[in-house]
Amino acid sequence: MEVGQGPWHSVNSDIYHDNPDCQTGGMIDPENIRQGTGGKRLCEECARLDNAADSVAPPMGDLTGEPGRGTTESEEELRRASTERPATHSRVGAIGDAADDAWTPTPLPAGPDVTRGRVGAEEEARLEESVRRGARRAIDEKEQEESGGGGLYGSQIDASHIVGAAIAELVGTFILVFGGTAVAVGAILSRPTAGAAYDSLAVALAFGLALAIVVAALGHVSGAHVNPAVTLGMAATGKFPWNYTPHYIGAQLVGAVLAAVATWITFGGVGARSEAKLAATYPAQGVGDLQAFIVEILITFILVFVVMAVATDERAPAAIAPIAVGFALAVGVFIAGPVTGGSVNPARSLGPMIVAGDLTSFWLYILGPIIGGVLGALLYDRTMAQTEGPG
Predict the structure, then answer these.
(1) CB-hemisphere CA count at 13 Å for 230?
(2) 52, 75 in Cβ contact below 8 A?
(3) What is the pLDDT of residue 216?
C-alpha cells in the first residue's frame, strides 16, 4: 500500500495517519504499514495539516481551537529535533521512530540511534500529556465561564440558580446569626433555661453548631457561605464568580438584620436591645480598635482557611466539612470572644448593630474579617491546593 491511499497506521502504533504530507506517517517502514485506522487515534500532525487544508489552522497541540493556545516548549523542541537529528532507519526519522517503532517487540541493535529513539518516545509522551492537560484546562475554563462557576459543596452557581442560592444565603445567615445571638443575649441577661444561665462556652458552641447545621442543610444549594468574608475569599481565588458577590453579600446582610429582629422579639423588653445590644460585637473594655482589628483578621483567617481546605479541595472527605467548618468558627469565637466579641463575620456584627442602633467601631468588623478571609483563601489556594503529601 502506498502512503496517501486512505488511512494507514504502523503495526507498532495505535496512531493512524490520513494526510499524505504527514512527515511522521511518511517515515513508517513499508513492511510496518497497515491499511485502516488502527487504534482510531489520529496523528496530531495529520490533524494539523487537515485543518490547514480547510483554512482552519490552530497550532499543533491546540485542541481548543483558540489561536496561540496549546503550543508548548517541549513541542517546539520536538519539532526542531525532527529536522536536526538524523533518521534512525532509512525511512524512519526521530519523530517516526518515536511515534511508530518505539514499542516494537523486535529488539533493535544497541547504539546511539536506539537511544535517540527512546528519548524521542519519552518526549512525545510528555508532549501528549501536556496537550491533554492543556485541552482539559481550556474546556474547564470555558464551561466555568459559561456557567458562572461551581460553588462549594457541589452547589451550582449560575444565572439560572442565583435566585435560589441567594435565598439560601439569606436563610442560612438568619439561622447562624439568630442561633448565636439568641444564646449570647440569654447569657448576657443571665436568663436560665434549667439551672444556671448560659455562659461564654454556650455562645461559642451555639455559633459553631449553627454553622455546621447550615453547611449540612444548604451547602449543596448555595455553598453556605453565610459570611461576606467567605464569599470575597472565594472570589479572590477564582472559586466564586465576582458578578454574583453582590447577590450573596446583600442576602447575607438582610438575613443578619432579620435574625437580630428575631432575637429582639424572642427576649422582648428593652433589655435585649439596650443592655445586651442584641449580642452585637464591640471591643471589650480596655481593648483598642487596632488590637481588635488584628484579632478579627486572625480568627477569620482560621475560618476561611479551613473552608478552603475542606470545601474546595477534592482530596478532603466531603462528610467532614460541616463539622470542620463549625468547629473552626467555634474556635474563633473562643479566641476572640473576650477581646472583640468574636465576630468572624461582617454580617453577624452589622445585623445586630443596625437593629440595636449602635455602630461603634463597625469598620473593624467589616475590614478585619474581609482581610483575614482573603488572606486565608489565597494562602491555601496558592500553596496547598495542589500539594501532595510525602510518600
Answers:
(1) 30
(2) no
(3) 95
Same structural domain, 205 and 319: yes
Beta strand ranges found along the chain (DSSP E): 8-10, 15-17, 33-35, 41-42
Can you spell out the DSSP letters for 330-365?
A: HHHHHHHTTTT-----HHHHHHHHHHHT--TTHHHH
Asked whether the beta carbons of 229 and 304 are under 8 A apart, the reply is yes
Strands 8-10, 33-35: parallel, antiparallel or unpaired by DSSP?
antiparallel
pLDDT tens digits along 75-114: 555 555 545 544 444 444 434 444 444 444 445 455 555 4
Query: 247 and 235 in contact (C-beta within 8 Å)?
Result: no
CB 223 within 8 A of CB 361: no
pLDDT at 231 over 50: yes
CA–CA gap between residue 230 and residue 310 (Å, rounded): 13
Q: Are 111 and 225 members of one domain?
A: no
List the domain range (segments joined by +) for residue 231.
Answer: 152-383
- For helices 228-236 and 245-267, give the axis angle rounded to 10 degrees: 170
Give the tens place of pLDDT for each residue, 14-39: 787 788 888 777 777 777 787 777 76
Residue 2 lies in a domain: no
Are the beta carbons of 188 and 275 closer than 8 angstroms? yes
